[in-house]
Amino acid sequence: MLMQPKKTKYRKYFKPRGLPKPSTKTLKLTKITGFALRSLKSGYINGRQIEAARQNIRRKIKREGKLEILIFPDIAISRKASAARMGKGKGKIDHWIASISAGQTLFLLYGIDAEQGIPALHSGANKLPLKFKIYYL
To answer: How far apart, in Å, do the first and last CA atoms of the chain sit?
Structure first.
């Protein structure tokens, strides 16, 4: 008789250890001309950092063109209260992070010229903790 693992309804995830592996997938956009913000190193990005970069890019291009975000923070990071004693289970979810691998595209910006697009993506990349490069599509 084969034993099935016990199913839990609300299972909390483990904190990620180590960096994500470099991406082997390449984004193929032949019909669209625009700019892409691609990471040079692996790491993790907080949901608030993604939102700060998005707001900064939109502000620089004066809400023209189309901006696509290709990442989503789907890893929960939990934290217990600072004065909490040991035990009594895992802490509450503190924030959400996204796993970024080297070579992964984060933002796509198209429908705008290079005069506005490149400085906008550069200022958005300054809000993020990893190193990025801007590619022309």
So the answer is: 56
Residue 29: predicted pLDDT: 46
83, 8 Cβ separation under 8 angstroms: no
Backbone φ, ψ for residue 129 (5° rounding): -80, -5
Res 9: pLDDT? 65
Phi (first) and psi of residue 38, to 5 degrees? -120, 140
Given a cut of 50, the residues of the chain with pLDDT beneath it are 29-30
Question: Global pTM?
Answer: 0.78
Please provide the DSSP assignment of 25-73 as one string: -----SS--EEEEEESS-EEEEHHHHHHHHHHHHHHTTT-SEEEE----
Q: What is the pLDDT of residue 127?
A: 95
Q: Are 33 and 125 in contact (CB under 8 A)?
A: no
CA separation for the pair 25, 69 (Å, rounded): 17
